Amino acid sequence: MSRGRRCRTRLALACLGAALMLPSCRDPATPPAAGRDPTEVVVASFNFPESTLVAEIYATALQAAGIPVRRELGLGPRELVQPALLGGLVDVVPEYLGTALASVHAAGVPPGDPGAVGVPPGDPAAARQALARALDGRGVRVLDPAEAQNQNGVVVARATAEHLGLSKVSDLAAHSSGFVLGGPPECPERPYCLPGLEGVYGLRFGGFLPLDTEQQRAAALVDGVVDAAVMFTSDGRLATGDLVLLADDRGLQPSENLVPVVSARALDRHGPRLAEVLDAVSARLTANGLRFLNWRVSMAGKDVATEARGWLERQSLIRPAA
């Protein structure tokens, strides 16, 4: 086992222990884990490609600003990464506003908080404030969200959109009874999937085809196996022009903007510069830019670190390599 894998394994086990102790972790000045270099900022990600890519962008920007960084990319699912952040084992995690807020409240942190109820859909500022309130006193700060986000979206083939004049989800009302919808197998039970499309938009699809992966759903659209599909709005396949993402014009989906969630310990140690660097990255990260980066990494097979540095250089956030 390589040194990096050993390190991730130890950290994952530590995170699991932190998860079990989560209700009792209330100290906002949680010290760094034993054996850690206290000057290092540990940047972690969830174990899927987009999270790893965005975390690498943040990590590279911090290093370019002279802040020492250690990477824990692809660390694991939210059930491990979130307790690691709250327990002081990692310092920076690229989060998604709506999902982070829901998971914090599902974990009972803090108790008695009303949760995400009342957060208007499509209002990332309100979602950020709610997340910051939920994490208040936990030794974690929520920085500025990016414009880029990753929600559930309804997608059609470009030929279908042009033929029927579809640009927003509500346009499907006149056609849904003759459409087959493709989506993840759990879609019929998820409130932001089929039940939400029925309740908020009044859509009654003629059929539903469960498809496990984004690749399968995109192929089914192109091949005419389904007429519409539920896909992630930041999927790299949406950058090619063959598929059209319909606007969520009635605000079914919660705000899922990417946002850096950072330990207070790291912010106190490195001062305003740390937040300034991360916020500058978020300010440039757009929906189209994220789709293009995802296409480069997931579709074209480009190297994550190379793409992260290239994007930062094109945004004039770091100097080009000599």
Question: Which key phrases capture this entry?
Answer:
disordered N terminus, 2 domains, 12 helices, globular, D-Maltodextrin-Binding Protein, domain 2, 3-stranded antiparallel β-sheet, alpha/beta, 322 residues, 5-stranded mixed β-sheet
Structure description:
With 322 residues, the chain is of the alpha/beta class. The protein has 2 domains: 3-149 and 257-314, D-Maltodextrin-Binding Protein, domain 2 (3-Layer(aba) Sandwich); 152-246, D-Maltodextrin-Binding Protein, domain 2, CATH 3.40.190.120. Helices cover 41% and strands 16% of the residues. The chain contains 12 helices and 10 strands. The chain has helices at residues 3-20, 49-64, 78-86, 97-106, 124-134, 158-164, 194-201, 214-222, 264-270, 272-284, 287-299, 304-314, and strands at 41-46, 69-76, 92-96, 140-142, 152-157, 180-183, 207-210, 228-232, 243-246, 258-263. The strands form 3 sheets. It has a 5-stranded mixed beta sheet with strand order 7-6-8-5-9. A 3-stranded antiparallel beta sheet has the order 3-10-4, sandwiched between helices. Helix 2 (49-64) links the parallel strand 1 (41-46) and strand 2. Helix 9 (264-270) packs across helix 10. The longest helix has 18 residues, at 3-20. The chain is globular, with a radius of gyration of 20 Å. The two termini are 34 Å apart. The model is unreliable at 1-7, 15-32 and 109-117 (pLDDT under 50).
CATH structural class of the largest domain: Alpha Beta
Proportion in helices: 40-55%
CATH topology of the largest domain: D-Maltodextrin-Binding Protein, domain 2
Mean pLDDT: 88
Low-confidence stretches: 1-7, 15-32, 109-117
Query: In angstroms, what is the radius of gyration?
Result: 20 Å
What's the number of helices? 12
Shape: globular
Number of domains: 2
- How far the N terminus sits from the C terminus, by CA atoms, comes to 34 Å
Q: Major sheet: size, sense and barrel closure?
A: 5 strands, mixed
What is the N-to-C order of secondary-structure elements (H for helix, E for strand)? Answer: HEHEHEHHEEHEHEHEEEHHHH
The secondary-structure class comes to alpha/beta
Beta-strand portion reads 15-25%
